[in-house]
Amino acid sequence: MSRTVKQPVGQKRLTNVAVVRLKKQGMRFETACYKNKVLSWRTGVEKDLDEVLQSQTVYSNVSKGVLAKSKELIAAFGTDDQTKICLEILEKGELQVAGKERESQLSNQFRDIATIVMQKTINPETKRPYTISMIERLMHEIHYAVDPGSNSKKQALEVIRKLQMQFPIKRSPMRLRVFVLPQNLPSLLEKLDSWNSDVVSKGESGSEISLVCELDPSVFRDCDALVRNLQGRLEILAVSVHEDTDTQVDQYDEHEDAQTSLSKETVDRMIQLSERIEKQPIIPKTEGEAKQSKCSTCNAVVGDSQQYRDHCKSEWHKHNLKRKTKQLPPLTAEECLVDLEIDNKKKDLEDYSF
């Protein structure tokens, strides 16, 4: 019995490519592209077609190297111009990606959607935003599936609507400044009250009345139209307002008291250590005496090993370490106290700044 030896088909197959597929008139057409170039072409980053297409040829199956027939091209596209057909496939076709690449894209988009939701929502009880890990867990609980062909911001708004049905979450308010004439103020306040908006401040700007208010973003268009009808003007101060951006004076006072008591203890400990170091007599070292340790960071003799360990835990030593990293000379204990007080005053000003 004779055996036939099968020879491989003389077929040149394209591998390691990104395939863009378009189905039209019941037929499938594909183009072979370079990886990571299709999205750049669609977003307008890449302009050169030769940098996107591996070959300006239309295929029925790229992986097998089967070319599309001219009759099929004319029937589906009305022309057999390969370049024009490739451009249409690039614009309207579906990009074929591997399983791991698709999983990575969906994971990144899921994270982007959760980030947008976190920025646009707050907890109605605490008036503070949820963490991104909490948002992601809530999205998993409602079994939300990411649509790779849709915009992340559009999907984020959809996620917010679904989360509001099951969990305590709401859109963070917008902060606006509205300028209206005094005679139009009552109608504006009435409308703001119907929208459950909060008036933060009220003042005068020339012949106009200025209001700073916080309202739900869903009524922003209605508010803008109302202000235009009242011959006023509107300014957006903040797209999203969270509680943690506004410091309450009472809370700050409590925090300041705790910080002051802590700093006093630290200062007392530094003064005691400094006085103990100054009282130590400087005598020449003889054999049998305890070794005197010197701190090279603070450029000071600090006594025996136990005193050296205490010194390394002090704010004086820590502050000089920070100065050493910035290539600044060390300070004495008294100079360090003054420098720390100046830093505390700067922090107080930053906390009170809006």
From TrEMBL:
GO MF annotations, alphabetized: transcription cis-regulatory region binding; zinc ion binding
Swiss-Prot/TrEMBL keywords: Cytoplasm, Nucleus, Ribosome biogenesis
Domain U1-type residue range list: 290-324
InterPro entries: Matrin/U1-like-C_Znf_C2H2 (IPR003604), Ribosome_mat_SBDS_CS (IPR018023), Ribosome_mat_SBDS_N_sf (IPR036786), Sdo1/SBDS (IPR002140), Sdo1/SBDS-like (IPR039100), SDO1/SBDS_C (IPR046928), SDO1/SBDS_central (IPR018978), Sdo1/SBDS_central_sf (IPR037188)
PANTHER family the UniProt entry points to: RIBOSOME MATURATION PROTEIN SBDS (PTHR10927)
Major place of residence: cytoplasm
GO CC, one annotated term: cytoplasm
Localization, UniProt: Cytoplasm; Nucleus
Source species, domain of life: Eukaryota
Entry keyword annotation includes Transmembrane helix: no
Complex formation: Associates with the 60S ribosomal subunit.
UniProt similarity note: Belongs to the SDO1/SBDS family.
Biological processes, Gene Ontology terms: cytosolic ribosome assembly
Pfam families: SBDS_C, SBDS_domain_II, SBDS_N
Protein's organism: Kalanchoe fedtschenkoi (Lavender scallops)
The protein's name: U1-type domain-containing protein
